[in-house]
């Protein structure tokens, strides 16, 4: 413990790391403050009374979870960072089908900047569509619209919501560029963690006097977190032999020979399959939200995140998208070509086409248990709800929330670890290193 405290002190000895952490915390604080600034003209008293009456549905709770409460607060950042995520997903899908986008993806840094600009423009368009829907379907349904509702108020409120979402994107990009960790992912994580204490207190209040159940829920939550860390960090190491070069009279391993294995992650796709799948199954929930008088069987099934058919469809979509996104993240042919150029090869496998086929088959086999794990994580909240856990607290037992929290925390710790090790200091954990470092793009796909 004393060693760990000393390592924490070492963080503040590195000036650049200290500045980055302070900047990150400051920008996160600004984002959190923005979640409590109410849209001008909205009757917050009526909104709070409607929420306290328990009129919020599961979809509202889910959207509020990823906006840090900004959605249910009717704040200027009510749309949160989700429009940017949706735009990023659309751009990634276009990269699979549109040659012009594929060309930009292969242009390196300049192509990435152009894609980011198009993503921001698309984000503005998505916000412009979501903002009036949010006001009409949520704020108006709560009876929180201003008494003097005018066209001017609608226009300026839509502009405020769009500006709030873009400001959140700007904060995330500044954290990524000048702070520590991936900014967009950190903002989502902070929004999720902000709801955790309130959900846990609510669960304790419901089960007041039943201490055993509370303890069992905490233990189950910790087991899920540990299992998630285990899978997120899981790596299949493919042994490699590297060429040697002659320096003077000695045979020395080439620079590429410093690593004698090729790491293939069990969960190479990160949280993206769950985000893809939830984005698709959420569409019917949003479409059905306006028709509550005569709900059909399909509407009832797809509007219940804890129902059987919802979770079956969600699990199948996650498995499909895991293979889809892994194919985007890992290119066996490119890996084989890079190995061939560097003089490396897999023992017993010929360089070139045979190596690409070997890696492709291995990735396919590894992806299957990874996809099953993601599907299992996604449906754990439904299982927790059936076990009697409060709906708000059950959301933290799995799904996107647990993967994002674990992934972002690990990624941030790995970046801090790198700063310390680069300055010949001990890492955060005595006798160990945080393994499986993931890039910001791999974690969030943004």
From TrEMBL:
Swiss-Prot/TrEMBL GO biological process terms: intracellular protein transmembrane transport; protein targeting; protein transport by the Sec complex
Function comment: The central subunit of the protein translocation channel SecYEG. Consists of two halves formed by TMs 1-5 and 6-10. These two domains form a lateral gate at the front which open onto the bilayer between TMs 2 and 7, and are clamped together by SecE at the back. The channel is closed by both a pore ring composed of hydrophobic SecY resides and a short helix (helix 2A) on the extracellular side of the membrane which forms a plug. The plug probably moves laterally to allow the channel to open. The ring and the pore may move independently.
Family statement: Belongs to the SecY/SEC61-alpha family.
Entry membrane topology: Multi-pass membrane protein
Keyword Signal: no
Membrane-spanning segments: 21-39, 81-101, 121-139, 151-171, 183-202, 214-235, 266-288, 308-330, 366-387, 393-413
Alphabetized Gene3D superfamilies for the sequence: SecY subunit domain
Keyword line: Cell membrane, Membrane, Protein transport, Translocation, Transmembrane, Transmembrane helix, Transport
Quaternary context: Component of the Sec protein translocase complex. Heterotrimer consisting of SecY, SecE and SecG subunits. The heterotrimers can form oligomers, although 1 heterotrimer is thought to be able to translocate proteins. Interacts with the ribosome. Interacts with SecDF, and other proteins may be involved. Interacts with SecA.
GO cellular component: a single term: plasma membrane
Stored Pfam families: SecY (PF00344)
Protein name per its UniProtKB record: Protein translocase subunit SecY
Matching InterPro entries: SecY, SecY/SEC61-alpha, SecY_CS, SecY_dom_sf
Record organism: Taishania pollutisoli
Presence of keyword Transmembrane: yes
Localization (cell): Cell membrane; Membrane
Domain of life, per lineage: Bacteria
């Amino acid at each position: 413990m004393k060693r760990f405290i000393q390592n924490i002190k070492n963080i503040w000895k590195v000036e650049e790391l200290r500045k980055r952490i302070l900047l990150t915390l400051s920008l996160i604080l600004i984002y959190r403050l923005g979640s409590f600034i109410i849209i001008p003209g909205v009757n917050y008293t009526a909104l709070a009374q409607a929420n306290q009456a328990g009129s919020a549905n599961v979809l509202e709770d889910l959207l509020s979870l990823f906006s840090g409460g900004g959605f249910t607060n009717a704040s200027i950042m009510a749309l949160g960072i989700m429009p940017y995520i949706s735009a990023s997903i659309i751009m990634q899908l276009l990269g699979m089908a549109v040659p012009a986008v594929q060309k930009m993806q292969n242009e390196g840094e300049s192509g990435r900047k152009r894609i980011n600009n198009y993503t921001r423009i698309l984000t503005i368009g998505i916000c412009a569509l979501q903002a009036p829907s949010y006001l009409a379907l949520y704020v108006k349904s709560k009876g929180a619209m201003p008494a003097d509702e005018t066209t001017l108020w609608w226009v300026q409120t839509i502009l405020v919501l769009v500006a709030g979402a873009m400001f959140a994107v700007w904060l995330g990009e500044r954290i990524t560029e000048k702070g520590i960790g991936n900014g967009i992912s950190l903002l989502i994580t902070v929004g999720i963690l902000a709801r955790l204490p309130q959900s846990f207190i609510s669960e304790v209040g419901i089960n007041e006097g039943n201490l055993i159940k509370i303890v069992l829920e905490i233990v189950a939550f910790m087991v899920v977190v540990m299992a998630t860390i285990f899978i997120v960090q899981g790596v299949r190491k493919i042994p490699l032999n590297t060429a040697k070069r002659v320096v003077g009279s000695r045979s020395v391993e080439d620079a590429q020979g410093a690593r004698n294995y090729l790491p293939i992650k069990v969960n190479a796709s990160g949280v993206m399959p769950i985000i893809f799948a939830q984005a698709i199954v959420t569409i019917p929930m949003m479409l059905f939200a306006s028709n509550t008088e005569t709900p059909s069987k399909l509407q009832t099934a797809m509007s219940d995140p804890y129902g059987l058919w919802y979770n079956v469809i969600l699990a199948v979509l996650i498995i499909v998208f895991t293979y889809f996104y892994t194919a985007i993240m890992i290119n066996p042919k490119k890996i084989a070509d890079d190995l061939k150029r560097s003089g490396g090869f897999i023992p017993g496998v010929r360089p070139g086409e045979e190596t690409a086929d070997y890696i492709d088959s291995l990735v396919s086999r590894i992806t299957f248990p990874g996809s099953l794990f993601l599907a299992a994580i996604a449906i754990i909240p439904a299982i927790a709800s059936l076990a009697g856990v409060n709906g708000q607290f059950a959301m933290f037992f799995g799904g996107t929330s647990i993967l994002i929290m674990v992934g972002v925390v690990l990624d941030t710790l790995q970046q801090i670890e790198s700063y310390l090790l680069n300055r010949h200091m001990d890492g955060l954990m005595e006798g160990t290193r945080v393994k499986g470092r993931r890039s910001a793009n791999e974690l969030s796909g943004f």
